[in-house]
From TrEMBL:
Family annotation (InterPro entries): CheY-like_superfamily (IPR011006), Homeodomain-like_sf (IPR009057), HptR (IPR051552), HTH_AraC (IPR018060), Sig_transdc_resp-reg_receiver (IPR001789)
A GO term from the CC aspect: cytoplasm
GO terms classed as biological process: phosphorelay signal transduction system
Full protein name: Stage 0 sporulation protein A homolog
Organism phylogeny: Bacteria, Bacillati, Bacillota, Clostridia, Eubacteriales
Keyword Phosphoprotein: yes
Residue list for modification 4-aspartylphosphate: D55
Protein's cellular compartments: Cytoplasm
Annotated keywords: Cytoplasm, DNA-binding, Phosphoprotein, Transcription, Transcription regulation, Two-component regulatory system
Superkingdom per UniProt: Bacteria
Tagged with keyword Cytoplasm: yes
Single GO MF annotation: DNA-binding transcription factor activity
Function per UniProt: May play the central regulatory role in sporulation. It may be an element of the effector pathway responsible for the activation of sporulation genes in response to nutritional stress. Spo0A may act in concert with spo0H (a sigma factor) to control the expression of some genes that are critical to the sporulation process.
Length: 498
């Protein structure tokens, strides 16, 4: 696969390209992303991507300057993206041998064609061999080899369990440049382990932010006590993953099992002791996820705060019950934020908060971020609309009042306001207090009453208010008024005469 680096100082623009472009179908893989030219330069030197998609306007080193620097040492192909239609930019792009120059907002089909053209150029030049790197798999293998080398020969054959303790605050410390706090947490874990377990316990540090223990099956442990002590010191949050008991000969499997349980901390929650895999209640249906995401986005855009939050809760619970991993949660979150933010950008409104999304360590923190993001977005939408009455309902009511005598279907209305039928049905009932069909029925019957009082014939009135079936008109009229049209007409004629 051809390696691609995305460079843009706008978080959701980067994530949007990563999410919506069918990279695999284009024989490409995303190897990284950067928010400015200097960060991109470092990642280019590390990853040596075949293609760099870069925005022009970024703080520090802009996209074209980045391309100029890279072209002196590498044969990386550049696709330049800009929000400005400036001929001088285009000329500079040609000078740095950019394959394409694309203007924002990006046309997806145009962008895909640019990628295809770039891939063909790389093939033609034959500058790079395709290298497929299974980084995660290799990392696991390295950890297992290291783990095995230390373990073999240290302990006699016995039944053991593997425990991995992870410092969940590690990334936070790195961003704040407080690596010393991470060492403090790790040392505290080591001291606690030495104090509470026998000398036969092996303590390893396969990563800088975690400790692995090999415990005899008879070891008595209470890791909640350790969690409490670290919380009490206010120096971080930890999560513990514990394997089943098995013979030391299966140490690789035990280590892998403990690690998998630790990875489920996104579902169980940080600051917890995990001794089993998170239970999966159903198979994930991607179409259902798409429907829920659409509801969240639509509710947010149309400023329906409670409905947006309700749809978010349903989506997250659906993903939790499906036992999905952290990347799938982020994928859905990015799509939600990207689409809502795209609507705000159309109105020249910027909304940030990407750092909080990246910092989410479990579903609870992710949910908190998304709730805040949606609430802030709705506040912006309300500000944009000047706190006008609900635009969707306004459009629907106006249409019904003007077209009640025609065939009106929920399908027609849903297309008009870009909402799915099921959602629109619930939404309409919540706002109006009655369902869609009842509302239209009442409008028609009220109009029929006016016409009958004026002396119009019943058959004519039925057609004028939208009923082709005279019998159905009689049934609905009686449901609303308690009288048949003939009875209503006679009654009102009597009152008029008298």
């Amino acid at each position: 696969m051809y390696k691609v680096l995305i460079v843009d100082d706008e978080y959701y623009s980067r994530k949007g390209l990563i999410k919506i472009i069918p990279w695999k179908e284009l024989n490409c893989e995303i190897v990284g992303e950067a928010e400015n030219g200097y960060e991109a330069l470092d990642k280019i030197n590390q990853e040596k991507p075949d293609i760099v998609v870069s925005d022009i306007n970024m703080p520090g080193l802009d996209g074209l300057e980045l391309a100029e620097k890279v072209q002196t040492s590498l044969k990386t192909k550049f696709i330049i993206v800009t929000g400005y239609d400036d001929f001088n930019y285009a000329k500079r792009a040609v000078k740095v041998n950019a394959v394409d120059f694309i203007k924002k907002p990006i046309n997806i089909e145009e962008f895909i064609e640019a990628i295809k053209k770039t891939v063909e150029l790389i093939k033609k030049d034959n500058l790079y061999d395709v290298v497929i790197r299974e980084k995660e798999y290799l990392q696991i293998m390295r950890e297992q080899i290291s783990f095995s080398e230390v373990y073999i020969g240290e302990v006699e054959a016995r039944d053991v369990r593997v425990v991995i303790i992870k410092n969940d605050s590690y990334d936070k410390y790195l961003r704040a440049k407080e690596e010393g706090k991470n060492r403090q947490v790790i040392n505290m874990i080591k001291d606690w382990s030495n104090k509470n377990f026998s000398k036969d316990t092996i303590v390893l540090s396969p990563h800088s932010n975690r400790i692995a223990l090999v415990l005899d099956k008879s070891s008595d442990y209470d890791f909640k006590e350790l969690i409490y002590e670290i919380n009490n010191q206010n120096i971080g949050r930890i999560t513990v993953g514990i394997s089943n008991v098995d013979n030391e000969k299966n140490i690789h499997n035990l280590y892998k099992q403990a690690k998998e349980r630790l990875e489920d901390s996104f579902l169980w929650g940080i600051n917890s002791v995990i001794t089993k895999k998170y239970p999966k209640k159903h198979i994930i249906n991607k179409k259902h996820i798409k429907i829920l995401i659409n509801e969240i986005v639509e509710n947010s855009i149309f400023m329906q705060r409670s409905l947006a939050q309700e749809s978010l809760n349903i989506l997250l619970q659906y993903l939790i019950d499906g036992g999905v991993k952290r990347p799938e949660f982020y994928e859905c979150s990015i799509e939600i934020c990207f689409r809502i933010r795209s609507e705000l950008i159309k109105n020249a409104v910027e909304i940030t908060g990407e750092e909080s999304l990246e910092c989410a360590r479990d579903v609870k923190e992710l949910k908190s971020f998304l709730q805040e993001f949606i609430n802030n977005s709705i506040d912006y939408f309300r500000e944009i609309n000047g706190n006008k009455e609900d635009q969707v309902i306004k459009v629907l009511i106006q249409y019904i009042n003007e077209n009640y005598n025609k065939e009106i279907s929920l399908k027609t209305l849903s297309k008009m306001v870009y909402l799915n039928e099921n959602y629109l049905s619930r939404y309409f009932k919540q706002k109006m207090g009655v369902g869609f069909s009842i509302y239209i029925r009442d409008i028609r019957i009220n109009k029929a009453k006016e016409l009958l009082i004026k002396g119009e014939k019943i058959t004519v009135v039925a057609k004028e208010v939208g009923y082709s079936d005279h019998r159905q008109f009689n049934i609905n009229f009686r449901k609303v008024t308690g009288l048949l049209p003939t009875e209503y007409k006679e009654q009102n004629n009597y009152f008029i005469k008298n």
